């Protein structure tokens, strides 16, 4: 495939106009001002359009599309205990499959090419994701409220089998991460064993960290003043590539540890604001050189996967919180949404519009009123664009969404089956 006469946001997030971009064997093969001599097949006229890297959603619970709008205007504990947990107790593989299909459709519509997920019924998730052609780091979340050995837990057995059967499946589109849910949903032995196992197999770790002040302070009370990051570090959990979701209440010493261990922070600004959890100190994390990426969390607490909207809130939340209009620039935001996320997922050849990188790309219609005029394209994408401006999403060189049409998803059936599964669960509550 070749894009012709198209504006691009290059690997340095700089605008270049009237460019040609050739795709070959799932990768970007050519970027230049002249039409190449190589035949790249199908041609896309990019006049009035912008080509850039797709987005990497670094924290999500995709099947929770089933719970969109179900637990509104509640405090966190009431939201969890009165709405979310009872609903989730009725889930089955079919419901999770269709909930995941819907999440992938919404993701592709909004330019998300890859997601870091934590949930269960993960084989059903993988089945759906593979069908759509999207990328995903799937993790079977592990909790342990007993004294049971990790190796006796059903969730661990499922996680282990998932890794053995699906890690690097679908040509590498599917990766399997180890997922410890959180400090407050596990015990010391579980953390130690998870740390050792993850390190032994060389997997990534995905874990919730310091999402709320209550979680953070109760951890310190339980563990002789240690924060969740300090506690996890003491037990070796951060010794492999780790994505720590939320990190709203992390302390300076935590940031030192995260920098030393190469931890990625997955900031989830809309979910954290909606649940009144707080605002992640992104400016300080960036100042310390910590890799900061962006996550949506689930649509039960967001309530959409509109990633451009997430980027805008990511950029402006810190400005208000820390009373600094220069905090978190559009360039930093775009990096967090693309390259930083790809690196967190272990996708080192992704997240850049550069020759040799995977063709995970999106096309935006920049001839819409909200894009005029363009003094700085990065500013417009972060502050002026909307999800509806995305007209195409490409993963590994394959067009998965274009102008309202999905190439791998029957969207009408997906919506019908998701609604059907949701109604079935509600009838059982």
From TrEMBL:
SUPFAM superfamilies noted in UniProt: Composite domain of metallo-dependent hydrolases, Metallo-dependent hydrolases
Residue ranges of domain Amidohydrolase-related in the record: 51-399
Molecular functions per Gene Ontology: hydrolase activity, acting on carbon-nitrogen (but not peptide) bonds
Record's keyword terms, sorted: Hydrolase
InterPro entries assigned to the protein according to its UniProt record, in alphabetical order: Amidohydro-rel (IPR006680), Metal-dep_hydrolase_composite (IPR011059), Metal_Hydrolase (IPR032466), MTA/SAH_deaminase (IPR050287)
CDD domains from the UniProt entry: ATZ_TRZ_like
Protein name (record): Amidohydrolase family protein
Species this protein is from: Aminipila terrae
């Amino acid at each position: 495939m070749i894009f012709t006469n198209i504006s691009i946001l290059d690997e340095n997030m700089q605008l270049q106009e009237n460019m040609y971009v050739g795709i070959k064997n799932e990768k970007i093969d050519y970027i230049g001002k002249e039409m190449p001599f190589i035949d790249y097949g199908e041609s896309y006229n990019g006049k009035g359009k912008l080509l850039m890297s797709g987005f990497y959603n670094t924290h999500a619970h995709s099947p929770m599309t089933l719970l969109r709008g179900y637990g509104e205007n509640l405090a966190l504990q009431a939201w969890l205990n009165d709405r979310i947990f009872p609903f989730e107790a009725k889930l089955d593989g079919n419901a999770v499959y269709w909930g995941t299909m819907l999440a992938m459709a919404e993701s592709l519509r909004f330019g998300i090419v890859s997601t870091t997920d934590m949930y269960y019924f993960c084989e059903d998730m993988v089945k759906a994701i593979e069908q759509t052609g999207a990328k995903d780091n799937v993790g079977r979340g592990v909790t342990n409220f007993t004294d049971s050995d990790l190796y006796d837990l059903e969730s661990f057995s499922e996680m282990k089998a998932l890794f053995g059967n699906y890690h690097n499946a679908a040509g590498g589109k599917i990766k399997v991460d180890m997922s410890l849910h959180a400090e407050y949903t596990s015990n010391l032995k579980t953390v130690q064993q998870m740390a050792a196992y993850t390190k032994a197999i060389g997997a990534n770790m995905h874990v919730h960290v310091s999402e709320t002040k209550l979680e953070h302070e109760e951890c310190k009370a339980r563990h002789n003043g240690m924060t969740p990051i300090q506690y996890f570090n003491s037990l070796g959990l951060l010794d492999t590539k780790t994505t720590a979701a939320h990190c709203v209440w992390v302390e300076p010493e935590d940031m030192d540890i995260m920098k030393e261990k190469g931890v990625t922070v997955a900031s989830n600004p809309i979910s954290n604001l909606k649940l009144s959890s707080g605002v992640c100190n992104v400016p300080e994390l960036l100042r310390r050189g910590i890799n900061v990426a962006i996550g949506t969390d689930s649509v039960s607490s967001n309530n959409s996967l509109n990633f451009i909207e997430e980027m805008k809130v990511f950029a402006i939340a810190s400005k208000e919180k820390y009373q600094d209009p220069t905090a978190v620039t559009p360039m930093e935001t775009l990096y967090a949404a693309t390259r930083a996320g790809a690196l967190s997922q272990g996708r080192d050849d992704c997240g850049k519009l550069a020759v040799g990188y995977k063709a995970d790309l999106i096309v935006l219609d920049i001839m819409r009123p909200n894009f005029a005029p363009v003094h700085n394209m990065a500013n417009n994408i972060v502050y002026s664009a909307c999800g509806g401006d995305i007209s195409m999403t490409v993963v590994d060189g394959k067009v998965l969404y274009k102008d309202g049409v999905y190439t791998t998803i029957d969207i009408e059936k997906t919506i019908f089956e998701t609604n059907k599964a949701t109604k079935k669960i509600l009838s059982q509550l």
